[in-house]
Fold:
Amino acid sequence: LGYTQPNTHQPMAANGRGRPRGGGAPKPNLPANPFGTEPEPVPAQAPAPKSGAKKRGGRANAAPARTYAESRDFSLPSTLVQWAHSPEGIELIQGAAVGIGEVTFDDARRDRIVLHGDLPEEVDRAALLVESVLERRIKLQQRLAIKDKLDQERGKVQDELDRGLRVEFKVDPKFMGMVVGAKGSRIRMVQERCRIDRVVVDREACVVRIVGSDPVEVRKARNLLEVKEEIVAAPDDRARRVLIGKGGKNIQDVQKRSGAVSIDVDHDEGVVRILGTASAAAAAKVLVESLVSHLDEMDAATDELENLRWEIERLDTAWGEDNFYSRVPAGGSPFG
Structure:
């Protein structure tokens, strides 16, 4: 084919028919076309970013703006993929990659980021910084995951406590052996009698915990296991003697009725000590207080009776029910 240099002052029309489009100099960066078609524009080259150029804060760019001599791939742990593509993750990763050209995020492979730069030492340094950021984030996520799990467990425990599916109670260290029983005999007894999941004895904290699926059964187990000491004041010696009764009859009767383990009258301190399960000790306390109250009522009734007798005698004297003149023989005279 023959080639003729076209008139640079009259470029060919886009339809190739050779009609001039007008005079004037050719457009810059548009080379002459021997085939008579409109020259295609040459894309302008973007200026190469300087080392350490400012990144796109909070935005993920999928491809570098230009070709770099060095690059380094990072494979993200699965737990960090979503975070790395968030505005926070992008900003932190880009901010850590100091001194390089760009950081790109691969949309096709979301678990991959690439560092781009002109010098290997710059890319290596940025890689160390980005690795440090990722390691810190992994540790933070691990702590957050543990905290979330702990919060969930706490919420579950509190919910079951509110519903009565879990109970715990403090035990006086001196009564721990009584609660557990010989070789755990009382624990086994409660597990056999009650439909519960487990009994946990924390000897260091002196706490017993009961877990089950039925609040009624859990409460029943607690009543069988919990040991309490109740103290009733009995400062009057006579009251203490009445409480004991002849041969200890009254105390034995209270113990039998309540189911208390022991009832001890302490004459030195003037108190009655009751020991037993929570319900038994509470019942024994009511009975002992009732005896003391009854004794006080009897004392008050005795005093009132004496006062009544004195009043009757006074009335008899005042109205002559018991004087000499009231004793007149039949048909006689009071003066003889």
Observations:
- The chain has nine helices and nine strands.
- The chain has a mean pLDDT of 77.
- The beta strands are 70-75, 102-105, 112-117, 166-170, 198-202, 207-211, 227-233, 262-266, 271-277.
- The first strand starts at residue 70 and ends at 75.
